[in-house]
Amino acid sequence: MPLLALWTGPCQDGFMSKVPGHLWLLGLSGSGKSTVGEILARELHLPWRDTDAEITREAGVDIPKIFQTEGEEGFRNRESRILGRISTGPTSVVSCGAGIVMRQANRNLLASAGLRIYLKTDPATLVRRLHAAQDRPLLAGGSREETLCRQLGQRALFYEESEIQIDVSALHPQQTAAAIRERLPAPWSR
User: Fold this and answer.
1) At CA 152, angle to CA 149 and CA 156, rounded to 5?
2) pTM for the whole structure
3) Which neighbouring-strand residues pair with 25?
4) What percent of the chain has pLDDT over 70?
5) What are the pLDDT digits (tens) for 42-73?
6) Fold assignment, 22-183
7) Most buried of 75, 81, 154, 167 (most Cβ within 10 A)?
C-alpha cells in the first residue's frame, strides 16, 4: 500500500486535513513540469507520471499527430481519461499538460485527488526555454510570446487555485524541486 494513500492528519498551513496522494504539477508549456516532476518523484521515492507521455503512449502517435487527426477536443478527451485513470492509481507525482485546467471536471478532480503545485513562469522566460521545441501544437505558427500570454490570460485563475505556487522563472529544475519540498506539508515533507 502506498505510504501516503491513507494518511489523515491535522490541517497545516491552510492545506486540507485529509491529504490524498497525488502531487499535481501545473503550469504553462516550458515551466518545467516534466523535468521537475521526475526529480521530485525520485527525491520523494514516489512514482512519476506525465499526462502527455501517457497520452502519446496510449495513442501510439505524438501530440502534434493527435491534434492533426482529432483536433484539440480529441486531445482534451484523451487527457481527461488519462487524468481519471491516474487519479485512482497509486500516490504519485504527476506532470500535467498545460491545458488540463481548461475543463471544470479536470479542475475538480485535481482539487479532490491531491495537492496542486503551480510552477509560475513569465511568458518571456517560456519563449527562451521553448525556442527549439517542435512538439507543442498550440504554440505552432505566430508569435510564441503572444500565444503564451493569451494562454496565461485564459488559465492563470485556474492555476492560481493551486495550494502551492512557486515562481520558477529564475530557478533551475533542482532548485524548483527543492523549493517545492520546502513548501510541502506532512506527510510529503521528509
Assistant:
1) 155
2) 0.83
3) 95, 117
4) 78
5) 999 999 999 999 999 999 999 889 988 999 89
6) Rossmann fold (3.40.50)
7) 75
Distances (CA, A) of 37 to 43, 88, 106, 107, 108: 10, 19, 19, 19, 21
Cα–Cα distance for residue pair 83/89, rounded to 1 Å: 10
- SS3 percent helix, strand, coil of the chain, rounded to 5, is 50, 15, 35
Instruction: List pLDDT tens digits, range 121-162.
Output: 887 776 675 544 444 444 555 566 677 778 788 899 999 999
d(CA 187, CA 190): 7
* Residue that is written with C-alpha cell 507525482 in the block: 93
Grid cell for residue 54: 501517457
The three state secondary structure string of 37-82 is HHHHHHHHCCCEEEHHHHHHHHHCCCHHHHHHHHHHHHHHHHHHHH
> Which of 3-12, 100-109, 112-121, 172-181 is predicted with the least confidence, judged by mean pLDDT?
3-12
pLDDT, tens digit (0-9, with 9 covering 90-100), for 93-109: 999 998 999 999 999 99
Residues 6+ apart with CB under 8 A from 57: none
Distances (CA, A) of 105 to 82, 96, 100, 142: 13, 15, 10, 30
* Residue spans per domain, the chain: 22-183
| Across 14-32, average pLDDT | 74
Q: In the chain, what is the straight-line distance between the N-terminal and C-terminal CA atoms, in Å?
A: 18
